[in-house]
Amino acid sequence: VFSTNGPKLRQENMAESALVEIVKGGIVFNQGDPAVHWFEVLSGTVRTCRFYIDGHRQLTGFFFAGDVFGVEPERYGATAEAVTDAVLRRSAVQKEGQPVGGDVRSSALERALGSAQSCIFLLGHRTANERLAAFLLVIARRPGARLRFELPMSRADIADHLGLTIHTVSRTFSDLIRRQVIALEGRQFVRVLDLAQLEWLAGEADEGLANPAKAFSLA
Amino acid sequence: VFSTNGPKLRQENMAESALVEIVKGGIVFNQGDPAVHWFEVLSGTVRTCRFYIDGHRQLTGFFFAGDVFGVEPERYGATAEAVTDAVLRRSAVQKEGQPVGGDVRSSALERALGSAQSCIFLLGHRTANERLAAFLLVIARRPGARLRFELPMSRADIADHLGLTIHTVSRTFSDLIRRQVIALEGRQFVRVLDLAQLEWLAGEADEGLANPAKAFSLA
DNA sequence: CGCACTCTTGAGGGAGCTCAACATTTGTGG
DNA sequence: CCACAAATGTTGAGCTCCCTCAAGAGTGCG
Q1: Per-residue burial over A14-27, b = 16 or more CB atoms within 10 Å of its CB, e = otherwise
Q2: A127 beta carbon < 7 A from strand C?
Q3: What pTM was computed for the model?
């Protein structure tokens, strides 16, 4: 089964930066592999996931065009797989034996850190409604996204990202639709009907009061 | 109430790197503040937390001697507070108007990314037992820690870190003690009685099989 | 000693998981 | 193009685990 799932990389050249194509379901790198490259998404969608003993997955992020992933010291902490057919730009961490430091790596690390924190923020929400609403908002707020956007990943991917089951994800979608907060167009496209309601569900109605302490601060 | 809680910083000098003392409960920086400094813990313990609209906290990390925190672009994404009296080394992100790039910042970012991923890993566990067991293992595996270690933070801090209530945390502690997996000495000190059992509860009994796909990989 | 705070424990209820069935979509071969 | 199979998604019923509510025990401090 893994033969159809293996890395279908088509390498364009051997320079320090190379274009790589990967088919849906293909593996970019495995958790534990030496982290000799990092990647930028040019088109398509990629997911990173960690596997637990009991077999369940924790998806630690989705990466769309413009996002970077795989920026890590030593070894990859998660497996990266293609959610859809994708084109990536692969860059070497080492360049002629010397690590590539400086602002390129720093800014890539910053973006990786941002996506990790966004994942923590999602998992910090308490109920299925809050998590799904917050997740949809994260997608909706991506540059280029609007009140109508695509969800290229499966319900199972969403469930494993939010720490829920596909059943609960599906039920929560139905609930949001029933309350006319969103509408589905096909299974992949979402239209936000009531943004304020969605933000309220996600617990972000008033960003200014997100930190109660600030209400008392010197200001 | 915040007057007793405010930043009790005693600044040792104005150079690019400065020693800072902070008392238990004091705030190092607030979520949303410009991220002009980053910190290394010399002694004591620090927590970082995000606040949600509904008032609950998500603690995104605990930082002990040798750890770094507050390495972020632009603004701090979390508030940092002292769990115990602490001494920190504070470093400027900017140095004479120029950002400090290069390996110093990269390695600080790598460590910050590592602690974020460790937080995601904890929250990825499904049950209260698994989360607490995994949390105790994270602490037990810190350099210098052994099968007996201190938990400087309160039950409320642990609960907000693991996404549980203090009641569930307390009950889970009692359960682990009843099953003779750990023992408490006072309220702050933990002794691990059955490490294998603790690892099994945390779902880490066999790290080599953590990624099922690897069993099939090219080896 | 008394007060405030933290921690522990119990009882009851609710959100989400499990198990199960069915619907819908996608893919494949005739 | 259709028939069929496989994969994915939806929905319901029952149960479990954790949260809520409540009370009490332990600890530190003035």
Answers
A1: eeeebebbbbeebb
A2: yes
A3: 0.87
